[in-house]
């Protein structure tokens, strides 16, 4: 399928989504959300894609939501736009496969929110992050107020949200917003290496550990631990048993498809 506002290609078992509106710094609008949902439909239908990389074309990852589209919105229309973005990012976050953001440049506003909806964030040295909505008299609309504090803590998130300031890649690493910073020319190769390692592991285990960790984060400790125990047990008699036998027999495991 061809897209106007993003590129989607599959390399081996990895899907690469590139937001492709460089003339608008890859700003998010209704059409981008529609096409991103179409990509997610395609991924879910294919079943052959084992992981996804999200990146941007040009000097921006995504520099925010499209102000040109938003400026004439009324309150009801703006709320619907916000909910549309939230639902799209929720779908991305809820995929059973790993999703890694390769942050190549500016990840501001909706771009930072998109990166936070991914499981892991790897930044190039030129990347910059921020939620500058207050400088426009707005607040984040794609769950940035909720995800940011879960990633970097309440104080750090309020500092960024209330000041609207940007942080560079090294500061984003220090506060826990990204997991690794690499040279620009190494970014995509590094992310491919990471995702290749992840998808070489037991596919059911990777899917379940993502689900249990994400769901457990919003649960109490005991409830989350019970969820872990239940899913730990589910892997015995199938993928987990194969993995343990392969270890004891000193061979590579033969994983079945999820």
As residue ranges, the low-confidence spans are: none
Helix-strand topology string: EEHEEHHEEHEEHHEHEHHHH
Give the end-to-end Cα distance, rounded to a whole number of Å: 25 Å
For the record, what is the CATH homologous superfamily label of the largest domain? 2-enoyl-CoA Hydratase, Chain A, domain 1
CATH class of the largest domain: Alpha Beta
Our count of helices gives 11
**Kindly state the mean pLDDT as a whole number?**
96
Q: Major beta sheet, specifics?
A: 6 strands, mixed
Large-scale geometry: globular
Radius of gyration: 19 Å
Count of β-strands: 10
Task: Describe the strand arrangement of the main beta sheet, using strand numbers.
Answer: 1-2-3-5-7-10
Write up what this structure looks like.
Helix 5 crosses helix 6. This protein has eleven helices and ten strands. Helices cover 49% and strands 17% of the residues. The strands form two sheets. The protein has a six-stranded mixed sheet with strand order 1-2-3-5-7-10, sandwiched between helices. Strands 4-6-8-9 form a four-stranded mixed sheet. The chain is globular, with a radius of gyration of 19 Å. With 258 residues, the protein is α/β, with parallel strands linked by helices. Strand 1 and strand 2 form a beta hairpin. It folds into two domains: 194 residues, 2-enoyl-CoA Hydratase, Chain A, domain 1; 46 residues.
């Amino acid at each position: 399928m061809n897209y106007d506002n993003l590129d989607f290609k599959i390399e081996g078992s990895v899907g690469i989504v590139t937001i492709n509106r460089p003339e608008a710094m890859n700003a998010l609008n209704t059409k981008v959300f529609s096409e991103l949902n179409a990509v997610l439909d395609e991924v879910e239908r294919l079943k052959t894609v084992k992981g996804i990389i999200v990146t941007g074309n040009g000097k921006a990852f995504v520099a925010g939501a499209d102000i040109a589209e938003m400026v004439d919105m009324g309150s009801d229309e703006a709320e619907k736009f916000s909910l549309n973005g939230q639902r799209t990012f929720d779908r991305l976050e809820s995929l059973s496969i790993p999703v890694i953001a390769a942050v190549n440049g500016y990840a501001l506003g909706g771009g930072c929110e998109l990166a936070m909806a991914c499981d892991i964030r790897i930044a190039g040295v030129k990347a910059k992050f921020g939620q500058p909505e207050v400088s426009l008299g707005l607040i984040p609309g794609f769950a940035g107020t909720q995800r940011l504090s879960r990633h970097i803590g309440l104080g750090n998130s309020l500092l960024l949200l209330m000041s609207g300031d940007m942080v560079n890649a090294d500061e984003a690493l220090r506060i826990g917003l990204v997991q690794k910073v690499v040279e620009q020319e190494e970014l995509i190769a590094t992310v491919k290496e990471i995702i290749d390692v992840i998808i070489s592991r037991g596919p059911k285990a990777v899917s379940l550990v993502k689900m249990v960790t994400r769901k457990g984060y919003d649960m109490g400790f005991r409830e989350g631990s019970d969820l872990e125990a239940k899913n730990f047990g589910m892997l015995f008699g199938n993928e987990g048993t194969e993995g343990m036998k392969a270890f004891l027999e000193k061979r590579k495991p033969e994983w079945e498809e999820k």
